[in-house]
Write a structure and sequence with these properties.
This protein is an all-alpha fold. It contains five helices and no strands. It has a domain at 3-53. Helix 3 (26-40) packs antiparallel against helix 4.
């Protein structure tokens, strides 16, 4: 995956409603993110496969980012 695609994906994740990210189980969240992202950013087959694997390996981080948004910050960072 290219750095540009990763930036686009994380920007997309930051725009998604927190409730959506936290309410779905892992399988549903992975499928939903892949489908929604590829609707906005059309992907080639190999890009879609790599993104699917990437999302699967980052589900905990995605949920952590969403939880931080709910709590209003990133801990002790100014």
């Amino acid at each position: 995956m290219t750095p540009s695609l990763l930036r686009q994906f994380w920007h997309f994740v930051e725009q998604v409603q927190v409730g959506r990210l936290l309410s779905l189980d892992d399988h549903a969240l992975q499928g939903w993110l892949l489908a929604q992202f590829s609707d906005v950013y059309p992907l080639e087959h190999n890009q879609r496969h790599h993104l699917e694997c990437y999302i699967s390996s980052r589900l905990s981080l995605i949920r952590d980012v969403a939880s931080d948004r709910v709590s209003g910050g990133f801990g002790d960072r100014p």
